[in-house]
Amino acid sequence: MTNEFLELIKSRRSTRKFKPEQVNQDKLDAIIEAGLYAPSGNNAQSWHFTVIQNQEVISKMNQDLKKAIRSSDNLPEFMLSKIKAAASNDATNLFYGAPTLILVSQPEGGFFPMVDAALASENIMLAAHALELGSCWIGSAGWLFNSAKRNEYLEILQIPQGYFPSHIISIGKRAGSPAQATARKENAVNYIK
């Protein structure tokens, strides 16, 4: 059995190198709309998207995020050396050079806001892939919004009161071909019949 949508899911990959060319507005609108139509607990639709295309703001965020990571002492051990090394390299772009960032925020209270934000993000990344664009979930962005710069960025990015920035999705045209799928882990499913 083959299905175009299932093949789309299986072929989506994180993009870690983007062309500088800006995303077409019609495609961007469709991507955001896909996020707005995600399922959510109790139909709360508890997300807010901030589309960032100002390159000066993106560059500042990249530099401030690297500083926040370098000064953090609460990194999980398995990622400590890798992410601190990347954050210590002046040439590193933690958003992979994407021309568009979508900041996903969630309300500080609510039913299941973290899950809702994740579901909306998956819709966004699948829509980007369907429109022949690349995307990458940037979970490390959370360090920026937990740093001393938090209030500054809440203002710069006009985050609605009561919302907290969760993560960023980098969006843009891929510079290169998507990676091949790695093998899926075995024994990840069991059936109780």
Topology overview:
Blueprint (H helix, E strand, L loop, with lengths): L3 H8 L13 H12 L11 E5 L2 H17 L5 H12 L11 E8 L5 H18 L3 E5 L3 H4 L4 H7 L6 E10 L21
Antiparallel strand pairs: 1-2, 2-4, 3-4
Helix pairs in contact: 2-5, 3-4
Written description of the protein model:
With 193 residues, this protein is an alpha+beta fold. It has one domain: NADH Oxidase. The protein has 7 helices and 4 strands; from the N terminus they run ααβααβαβααβ. The protein has helices spanning 4-11, 25-36, 55-71, 77-88, 113-130, 142-145, 150-156; strands at residues 48-52, 100-107, 134-138, 163-172. A 4-stranded antiparallel beta sheet has the order 1-2-4-3. α2 (25-36) packs antiparallel against α5 (113-130). The radius of gyration is 17 Å and the shape is globular. The mean pLDDT is 93.
- What gyration radius follows from the Cα positions, in whole Å? 17 Å
Which CATH C-level class is it? Answer: Alpha Beta
According to DSSP, the number of beta strands is 4
Mean pLDDT: 93
Structural class: alpha+beta
What fraction of residues sit in β-strands? 5-15%
Distance between the termini: 23 Å
Oligomer: single chain
Number of domains: 1
CATH architecture: 3-Layer(aba) Sandwich
The main sheet comes to: 4 strands, antiparallel
Helix content range:
40-55%
Poorly predicted regions are none
Shape: globular
CATH evolutionary superfamily: NADH Oxidase
CATH topology: NADH Oxidase
Strand order of the largest sheet: 1-2-4-3
